[in-house]
Amino acid sequence: MSDVDQTPPTELSMGEEDPLSVSAVADLTSEIQTNVSRVIVGHGEVVEHVLTALLGRGHVLLEDVPGVGKTMLARSIARSIDCEFSRIQFTPDLLPTDVTGVNVFNEQRREFEFQPGPVFGNVVLGDEINRAPPKTQSALLEAMEEGQVTVDGETRSLPQPFVVIATQNAVEPNRTYELPFAELDRFTKKLHLGYPDPEEESDLLGRTVGDHPIESLEPVTDRETLVRARRTVASVRVETPVRDYVTRLAGYTRERAEVGVSPRGSISLLRVAQARAAADGRDYVVPDDVQAEAPAVLAHRIHTADRGRDGETVVADALEQVPVDPDA
Predict the structure, then answer these.
(1) Are residues 311 and 256 part of one domain?
(2) Where in the chain does DSSP place strands (E)?
(3) Torsion over CA of 283, 289, 293 and 299, rounded to 10 degrees?
(4) 5 lies in some domain
(5) Is residue 4, in this structure, part of any structural domain at all?
(6) Is the N end or the C end of the chain the one with fewer CB atoms within 10 Å?
(7) Global pTM?
(8) pLDDT band at residue 183, thresholds of 50, 70 and 90?
(9) CA-CA distance, 100 to 115, in Å (whole number)?
């Protein structure tokens, strides 16, 4: 028998410890962001977006040109929270079992044993995910949605917390595979880093000409504390007017795009809005939280037939046109 847990994961009921206070979550978020900034110069808004996705039980897709710090950002987050980190280097010849794991026959014990793949980690870096074919990419679908993996008909739960931070090469389109829409929808956010400005790049060069700062980065929290923080975030209040506002935003995208925001997208938006509220020290969500998170959460879930009108444009229009209070 495998030593990998086969009990369905229930992160929000893990352990007997109480959730953190909202103020403790706000302090924790600030500490992680400050720690990551020791490695990642600039990009404070992107780091904040990754943290609200992490606290909101979501996954992140980082898309940009090579060399701007996507992988280093994922490593910095993992080191800061002191969780088990694993890395999957996606290549054209990667197989689904290279991601999920495989049953191997043990000659001594005369039975099959499950050898877990790199997906069995707390923070899983999927590096250059679009270099692998769709069949291999789809190995993450069950893991990202349900926190479990099924191999040879047997389902095994993944360690909690579980988050995928994937990077995607935005160049060389002839050497990469487009992510299936169903997989894109499982990423809570799609983010872009961009190039640093000259002052930030000069600072970066000064930090890295010797030993890289990632090598000396120390954690500021641990797995148990992160789970408690996530439980706190899940309890942040979302009143009916805010839920109705998110529903109207999603409806706007469905009316003006070939494929609009799914209910999964609406749920993801509310979860990260809860995380943003907690990071700001509030135990309730306000429309500003929704508006701050909407572009990163919704745009990649929208497909339009009009090449001149992409998902980002549709979301921007929705935020401008959809009233917070329709009766005002």
Answers:
(1) yes
(2) 60-64, 85-89, 101-106, 111-116, 123-127, 148-151, 154-157, 163-169, 189-191
(3) 130
(4) no
(5) no
(6) C
(7) 0.86
(8) confident
(9) 9
